[in-house]
């Protein structure tokens, strides 16, 4: 076999391998999942400090969207919204932003004392670190609009103190 034919054969094999690997690494998006726009938020406490460890969820206000859109804030209060915990971004639309951070406790061991900036809900066995109004789709005052083909970034500050 001459040298040119050998090189062409190797190039062809390499091309098939690259195409094969590329098709294996492609994300298979669920049917009906719309285009997603990058959506990054920063959540700040009432005192201006970053809210770390909070769950942030988007609830559509104008349409029914069957996809879970949420994320968790890092130590700087930053969160990247993910759809179904797998796909980065959010579809274009208007959303109410829900923010919640709480931990459970076992009331058979006693009801913990409320510390500064917390609320103890003995019946639900929860300690809230963010006012519950922010966790409610109907009452959260935080709203955003994600625009088609644009990166969305903003800072939201909680204004209602827990106590």
Structure description:
With 163 residues, the chain is an alpha+beta fold. The chain has one domain (39-157): Sandwich (Immunoglobulin-like). 14% of the residues lie in helices and 31% in strands. The strands form 3 sheets. It has a 6-stranded antiparallel beta sheet, with no helix packed on it. Strand 2 (55-60) and strand 3 form a beta hairpin.
Short description:
With 163 residues, this protein is α+β, with helices and mostly antiparallel strands. The protein has one helix spanning 3-25; strands at 39-44, 55-60, 69-72, 78-80, 82-83, 87-88, 93-100, 102-104, 119-121, 126-128, 143-146, 152-157. The strands form three sheets. Strands 6-5-3-2-7-11 form a six-stranded antiparallel sheet, with no helix packed on it. It has a three-stranded mixed sheet with strand order 4-1-12, with no helix packed on it. The chain has a three-stranded antiparallel sheet with strand order 8-10-9, with no helix packed on it.
- CATH architectural grouping: Sandwich
CATH class: Mainly Beta
Which consecutive residue ranges, at least 5 long each, have pLDDT under 50? 3-8, 14-19, 21-26
Please count the helical segments. Answer: 1
Proportion of helical residues: 10-25%
Number of domains: 1
- Structural class, by secondary structure, is alpha+beta
Question: Can you say what the CATH homologous superfamily is?
Answer: Carboxypeptidase-like, regulatory domain
Q: If strands are numbered along the chain, what order do they take across the biggest sheet?
A: 6-5-3-2-7-11
């Amino acid at each position: 076999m001459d040298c040119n034919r050998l090189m062409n054969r190797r190039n062809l094999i390499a091309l098939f391998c690259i195409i094969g690997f590329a098709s294996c690494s492609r994300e298979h998006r669920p049917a009906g999942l719309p285009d997603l726009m990058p959506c990054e938020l920063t959540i700040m406490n009432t005192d201006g400090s970053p809210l770390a460890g909070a769950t942030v969820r988007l609830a559509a206000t104008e349409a029914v969207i069957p996809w879970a859109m949420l994320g968790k804030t890092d130590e700087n209060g930053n969160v990247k919204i993910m759809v179904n915990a797998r796909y980065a971004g959010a579809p274009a639309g208007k959303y109410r932003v829900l923010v919640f951070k709480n931990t459970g406790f076992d009331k058979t061991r006693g009801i913990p004392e409320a510390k500064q900036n917390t609320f103890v809900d003995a019946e639900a066995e929860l300690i809230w670190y963010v006012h519950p109004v922010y966790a409610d789709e109907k009452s959260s005052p935080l709203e955003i609009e994600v625009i088609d083909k644009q990166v969305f970034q903003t800072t939201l500050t909680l204004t209602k103190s827990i106590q």
